[in-house]
Backbone:
């Protein structure tokens, strides 16, 4: 699903825009545990999280996540935004809860992260 299709679904507000609206998102990871993000991240994944600290950017960089959505209208601090710009990671904000965002995106056809690395 293209980012342009996702933006209106979960009412995204751009904070840091690096990639264009045609970027293809294949899976979504809704998570506040960065250790789970490290364990299960796949290619072209969008991360939904309520955490706004710089560690989220560092985790995204390590897993090649290019899009982070902060849920519940939580605004990240300046150092998180600056680090995202430096690392080339897109940041958006949604007023919706993580549960609601995940449900909307799943219903729209996006897949969740696979647990295959545990098997």
Residues:
């Amino acid at each position: 699903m293209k980012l342009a299709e996702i933006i209106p679904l979960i009412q995204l507000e751009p904070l840091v825009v690096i990639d264009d609206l045609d970027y293809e998102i294949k899976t979504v990871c809704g998570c506040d545990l960065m250790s789970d993000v490290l364990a299960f991240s796949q290619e072209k994944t969008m991360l939904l999280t309520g955490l706004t600290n710089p560690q989220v950017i560092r985790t995204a960089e390590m897993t090649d996540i290019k899009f982070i959505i902060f849920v519940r209208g939580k605004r990240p601090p300046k150092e998180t935004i600056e680090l995202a710009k430096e690392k080339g990671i897109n940041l958006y904000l949604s007023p919706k809860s993580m549960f609601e965002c995940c449900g909307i995106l799943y219903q729209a056809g996006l897949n969740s992260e696979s647990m295959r690395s545990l098997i």
The longest strand covers residues 45-49. The chain has one domain: 3-112. Confidence is low (pLDDT under 50) at residues 115-119.
